[in-house]
Amino acid sequence: MLRETLVRGHQRLLHPPLSPGRGRFLQGQADLLDPEAASQIPRPQEARRRAARRLRSGASHSALRWNGVPRRYGDSGVGSLGSWRRGQNPRRDRVLRQREPRQRGPVLRGDGRAVVQEADSSGLHGLRGQSAVGQRGASQELFPYNSEERRPIVKRISREEFLLAAPGGLGMFANSEGASQRAPVNWSESVIAAAVCFPYVVALDENFVTIHSMLDQQLKQTLSFRDGRLLQDFEGKVMLASTKSVYVLVPLPLERQIQDLLASRRVEEALVLTEGAQRNIPKDKFQVLHRRILQQAGFIKFGQLQFLEAKEHFSKGELDVRELISLYPLLLPASSSFMRCHPPLHEFADLNHLAQGDQEKVLRCKKFLISYLGEVRSTDVANGCRDDVDTALLKLYAEQDHDSLLDLLASENFCVLTDSVSWLEKYHKYFALGLLYHFNGQDAAALKLWIRIVDGELQDSTRSDLYEYIVDFLCCSSSIEIVWKYADWALRKDPTTGIRIFTKRPVGKDRSEVNPDEAIAYLGKHSQALLLYLEHLVLERKMQKEKFHTHLVMLYLDRVMLLLSESPTDEGQLSRAREKLQAMLRESDLYRVQFVLGKMESCDKLLLERATLHGKLEEHDKALHILVHKLRDFPSAEAFCIWASSSRDPGYRQRLFHLLLGVYLDGSPPGKGQAAGGGGGEMEMAAVDLLNRHGEVFDAVRVLRMLPESWSLQLLRPFLNRAVRASMHAGRTSQIALGLARSENVQLLHDRLKERRKPIVVSEKKGCHLCHNTFSEPGVVCLPGGVPVHVHCAAQRVRDSPTKRQLANSSNHT
Fold first, then answer.
1. Which of 106, 306, 398, 577 could form a disulfide with 301 if both were Cys (CB 3.0 to 4.6 A apart)?
2. Which segments constitute the Vacuolar sorting protein 39/Transforming growth factor beta receptor-associated zinc finger domain (predicted)?
3. 691 and 791 share a domain?
């Protein structure tokens, strides 16, 4: 008695062997039959007893013996097969029709499609019915076939696809148009019968039963079976009959077959089988099955360290990424509620079980997980488990000393703080821990940690410029309380860099501005930082407050006085400090001049600065006296005149230069006039140089009256040449302007005479061409072209004319 067993992938078909005298099946790779189905087949002894009872009961209808069991012709299952064996036809839609042999049979064209030849075919005439060719009564010839040698085999696979036994031992797949969309199955040339049990094709010949896959057309199993007479598929079961017995072959469920393939690591076959079965499974059920098979396939490839294929399967199967993370010990946070899928998707307890102590495998698996998590953390795959993904990624980054750790923590992340703190401390990633504190709103904890690193209490070489980073962090902090708390440490460390906390602080909606008065009071004990902050307020932000300007001037002055009191004096630092003080005294107009001047009265080394302050007070004679007689610094005296008159009119500058010339001339000792004429006298030479360099500023006539009569004209030659040239230029320019004015006047008179001949209409509705206001008085002026304008508009136009301005400017020249 045959005991059928379950189908397991593409492995052994029947197990165990048949009873003695009935042949023995070859044991292949796996089972294909369900042992539970054996109970559906009556045992011979029981069948005989049932037949005897039926005969005694008077049953008179004819019957077939099915493995010793009598069945009526109309019974389900094998009854119809028995009728088919006896030549009866209980089914009305026969697929094939035989005809008498004729002259020659149909042949296939070169493209593999048949040519219809109704008149001279012998053997297979064609597929009948609308499902075969799309039109009832038409036929499609596929290949020559001799019906005298064997019975034709045609099996319906789907609505318009059929399996046919073709010459040359081929099982050919064809649709209703005669085209083949699958590769043929290569079976025996002596095939007696065939059956389709998707996705397999079962074929019976004289000695064997063979099983091929319709998906890849490969032979999956060969079984020894002699005296075979019938093979038929019926309602998902395959009937196999010999001369004495009938067997039911029940295939395993598809999912069981796939699981057996996966268990033997035949991933590609399992996937092909799954995808090929899509049309026979409801859509929703198939999607669930397909995703699970892809996930299992991914873990198989992962265990084989084929990471590219594994990632592809995980992605297509929409794997819950925590299934993969859970393989790595301690990566999931303690607060995670994740439980592995049941039944499990793989056979690994954890990564150590997979690697079997091979650290190189462990390292490769961790690098793969880093790459995979980095790709999926910002996609829909991580939805609902971002905290688990980011925490696992942080732990891997810290353990592997990965450069992306800081990028993870500096951007939006969902790392679980309680798990991450201990892990980062374990691998001495204190700077990264500070970033994590900051992201979780614990800026004070982050700063304490970073300060300990800078002070050497903790070792972390992540950033060599951590001090500058802390300064920038405080500069951008939204909490002003934290700024006041930790700015003192930064200023004590380096005032020049630490002051950036106040000077570079951006102003925005989420950042309150530091009050300058509070900052100045806070910086009182840091003199250098205070100086830099006041320079920022006055020189960069241009704040126009007297107290800031005065405070900055006094800090500059204190610095200069301190350097002057040192012995020996650092001339380089003193020079730079005085330059800053002098520039501030010249450029600012807001500081308290008298107060600063009082601070300098007792210092004879700051005469230049005192002269600048006298200039601010409009005491130019005192300033020039200091510069000329006390400092004997004639270039500075000339520069003073230029600076003091820089924002004034030309007349003011002329008065200052005449004042300086008078100081030079008044300073000449009596009786030195002849010596000056011969080139002696320091003051006289300074006066001559002043005239020769700035001759365009002076009034030449006034200068000639001031100069001593004993001076040689040769000394004043440059000045006189420039004065004469300027006078001639001014006179000629005036003549040109006068000529242009006369010409314009003549033209206006001519136009006036022309316009007088034409009437000029003025009304309240007509507007002035210059101001566009209406006329309210009869008095108007007519412009060239007959355009009436107001009298005052015409006068204003004349005053604004270039000729008028030129005449006004030339009146100052001699």
1. 306
2. 758-796
3. no
